[in-house]
Amino acid sequence: MRFKLRQMEVFRAVMLTGSMNGAAKLLFVSQPAVSRLIAHAEQSLGLQLFARDKGKLTPTPEAQRLFEEVGPLFEEALRIDELARDLAARPEGALTLCASPSLALNFLPPAIARYLELHPGVRLKFHTTLLADMAHELLGRKAELAISVLPVDHPNLVVEPLATGEMVCILPEGHPLAAQPRVSLAQLAACRLVLYSRNIPFGQLVAAAFQRAGVSWSAAVDIMRAEVACALVRAGAGVAIVDQFSVGGQGWPGVVARPLRESIPLSLSLARSRFERPSRQVQRFVRLIKEHVRGLPDLKTPG
Questions:
Q1: E strands within 56-173?
Q2: What pTM, to 2 d.p., does this model score?
Q3: What does the alpha-carbon distance between residue 293 and residue 288 come to, in Å, rounded to a whole number?
């Protein structure tokens, strides 16, 4: 290898910190050692990686291109290192989950807490991800299992329906429409609306529902996340339409959720890579999340 792994590590540290001294502190080595490794890398590769002017380093275009490749390599190396440490420290292993952002607000936390109570020896790693990135997360082995609030369609994923739900409207406490058991889109259109942007799937679902109902509407605020809509509604900025999972359970104090007269259905599903055999931890969590869903009266489960 002309570009040694140690040289890549030092090069990455310099790119991240912007200086030889910063890289030395990041790697817990001396600044001269960093300078020597960078100089040797440039000599071995026959490339100038940094332009030097009065002690300031400026990455060359070649360095920028190399950095794009070195970054993912070290992310994978860190993942493997983390796995090795987990195998030594936690005999039961680890479980990596990702989910639609709104599921992390109220729906998943009780299930995760129950899982950790039942399996305290497992290290659980959980992050949220957008629908567009979910397949990449699973096929790139950044997550073993995904829970999505919208349909996931990819030939290399195994997708299992978990439950069906719907979009709901949310209103500030004391709002006149909060007294009704169901609220129509026409009634909401007469209010100041906080709605998902139309360039994301939730926004497209809501826009299609208004069009089907023949109701003209205009959003006062475009948002991307359910928690932002909830915070704005609670502050009195308007009324909103969000998925029921984001306001289920304990919900948001000061915010009232009501069903819509014109149903906007949602399909909750589990997804995993077709090329990976589900681990024992994944199988356990799948069983638990199914039990969790069955205990929620406002959701319908397959079969």
A1: 56-59, 94-99, 123-128, 145-148, 157-172
A2: 0.71
A3: 9
Closest CA to 233 of 192, 197, 261: 192
d(Cα 53, Cα 170) in Å, to the nearest integer? 57
> What is the distance between the alpha carbons of residues 244 and 21, in angstroms, rounded to a whole number?
51
Give the span between the Cα atoms of 209 and 215, in whole angstroms. 9
> pLDDT tens digits, residue range 50-85?
988 777 888 899 989 988 888 888 877 777 777 677
| Whether residue 203 has pLDDT greater than 80 | yes
Q: What is the b/e burial string over 122-157, where b = at least 16 CB atoms within 10 angstroms of the residue's CB?
A: bbeeeebbebeebbebbbeebbbbbbbbbebeeeeb
Q: Identify the three-state secondary structure at position 218.
A: coil
What's the DSSP call for residue 142? S
Distances 80 to 74, 77, 140 between C-alpha atoms, Å: 10, 5, 13
Separation of alpha carbons 82 and 255, rounded Å: 41
